[in-house]
Specification:
single chain; 175 residues; mainly beta; OB fold (Dihydrolipoamide Acetyltransferase, E2P); 5-stranded mixed β-barrel; elongated
């Protein structure tokens, strides 16, 4: 006994609007709020990007509030999508970086000069001990102590990277 299976016609979906355009862009300048000026870019024969044409686009970064101070640096590449005549991008702020550092010297208060512990390119930065900002006179972390330093971007215009660590130097222990 064989069963006859009816042939089905593939389901076709109708598109209500024209397809959205997308293009690669490079942010060139901050305008205001979450709006930026960008120029179209394309890949060259070697696979690098280069600007094409003289056109400038206004792009809106949906990852920032409309009243933001603009945190996307010039030179950032993105994929812009045409949404009803407006170009939009989604460029969230970079994740915070954490690195291992050795305390070189107390710089006064809760500030310390710390040296990143890396195989290449060690650098000294000023980092603040969060545990000392509200307690004690500061300067309590010993030189050569190893700490984990967190790099944070503040809300200044332009933004500045600040370095902090949390070393509980005033902890009390019971016998």
């Amino acid at each position: 006994m064989t069963r006859h299976i009816a042939q089905r016609t593939p389901l076709r979906l109708a598109q209500a609007a024209a397809p959205k355009a997308a293009q690669l862009v490079r942010i060139t300048d901050h305008q205001a709020g979450n709006r930026y000026t960008a120029r179209p870019i394309a890949f060259d024969a070697l696979g690098d990007t280069e600007t094409v044409g003289e056109a400038a686009l206004t792009v809106v970064n949906l990852a920032e509030p409309a009243d933001a101070g603009g945190r996307v640096p010039a030179g950032t590449d993105a994929l812009a999508v045409d949404a009803g005549g407006r170009w939009i991008v989604y460029l969230p702020p970079p994740a915070s970086a954490v690195f291992c550092a050795r305390v070189v010297a107390a710089a006064g208060g809760a500030a310390y000069t710390v040296r990143e512990q890396a195989a290449t390119g060690m650098i000294d930065v000023t980092a603040y001990n969060l545990a000392e900002l509200s307690a004690g006179p500061g300067g309590a972390v010993d030189d050569d102590a190893i700490v984990l330093v967190l790099a944070l971007t503040d809300t200044d215009d332009p933004p500045t990277v600040r370095f902090v660590f949390d070393h509980p130097v005033y902890a009390k222990y019971l016998d």
